[in-house]
Specification:
The protein has about 220 residues and is α+β, with helices and mostly antiparallel strands.
Length: about 220
C-alpha cells in the first residue's frame, strides 16, 4: 500500500494533515515509524429494505476504509470494504455497539498484535498493525454508534456549551443562530440584536458562547 505524507502547503488536503493524525504520531511514535501501518475509518448508517409503513425491518452496513492512500485514491469504491451487515426486524438502537463487537475485536487484535502481511516491494512478510482513527456518520447514526443522546438541547457533542433553545410552537430543540459564536469577537453581527433571533445578541466566542436576550 502506498503511503502518503502530510501536505506542506498548510492546507488540509488529506486526513494526515489534521491535528488528530499528527498528534497520534507524537503519542505513538513506534506505530508511526513504520509507514506500512494503517489508519482506518468506520462508516455506518441504516436503511429500511421495505416501505417503512409496511415493515420496520432495517439493515445496517458497516464500512471500513484505509486512510493511508493518496488523495486521488482515497475513498474510491474499490477501497471501501463492507465489513459487517447488521440486519434485524427493527432498529438496533442502543444494541448497535454490541452487534459491532466482532469488528471491535478485530480492531483490537490489529492494534495489539498486528497480522502478518506481504510486502510486494520487498518481497517478504512483515507484521502490519492498524488503528481505528475516525468514524464518519450522520448525526442520528452517530448517536447510536457512540452512545450519545442526539435528541434535545444537549445533542451537540462539540463540548463548547449548548446554546440551543426550544421552539415555542413545535416544542423541538433548535440551534438557529449558533454560528455567530465562531465569528471574531468584534464582528459586526455579533452585537446586533435582531439580525437572527429577536432581541438577542452574542457576547462571547465559540469556547464560551453566550446569547443574551435584550427584550
Amino acid at each position: 500500500m502506498q503511503s502518503y505524507s502530510p501536505s506542506t502547503c498548510n492546507k488540509i488536503v488529506h486526513p494526515c494533515d489534521g491535528e488528530a493524525w499528527q498528534q497520534f504520531d507524537v503519542d505513538f511514535p513506534e506505530f508511526a515509524r513504520d509507514k506500512r501501518n494503517v489508519r482506518l475509518s468506520v462508516a455506518t448508517d441504516g436503511f429500511t429494505l421495505f416501505n417503512i409503513n409496511a415493515a420496520p425491518y432495517s439493515c445496517w452496513p458497516v464500512f471500513v476504509t484505509p486512510l493511508n492512500l493518496p488523495p486521488g485514491t482515497l475513498l474510491r469504491p474499490e477501497y471501501i470494504f463492507l465489513s459487517l451487515v447488521i440486519p434485524g426486524p427493527e432498529h438496533p438502537g442502543r444494541k448497535l455497539n454490541i452487534l459491532m463487537q466482532p469488528l471491535v475485536d478485530e480492531f483490537q487484535k490489529l492494534w495489539d498484535e498486528g497480522v502478518m502481511t506481504w510486502d510486494a516491494s520487498l518481497k517478504r512478510k512483515f507484521r502490519m498493525k492498524a488503528i481505528y482513527l475516525w468514524s464518519v456518520h450522520n448525526f442520528m447514526a452517530y448517536g447510536d454508534f457512540a452512545g450519545w443522546n442526539t435528541h434535545g438541547r444537549l445533542a451537540c457533542p462539540c463540548g463548547y456549551g449548548c446554546i440551543g433553545f426550544t421552539l415555542h410552537h413545535g416544542c423541538k430543540a433548535c440551534w438557529f443562530d449558533c454560528h455567530r459564536r465562531i465569528l471574531p469577537k468584534n464582528y459586526l453581527i455579533k452585537k446586533q440584536a435582531n439580525v437572527f433571533r429577536k432581541n438577542t445578541h452574542c457576547l462571547k466566542n465559540k469556547h464560551s458562547s453566550l446569547h443574551i436576550s435584550t427584550g
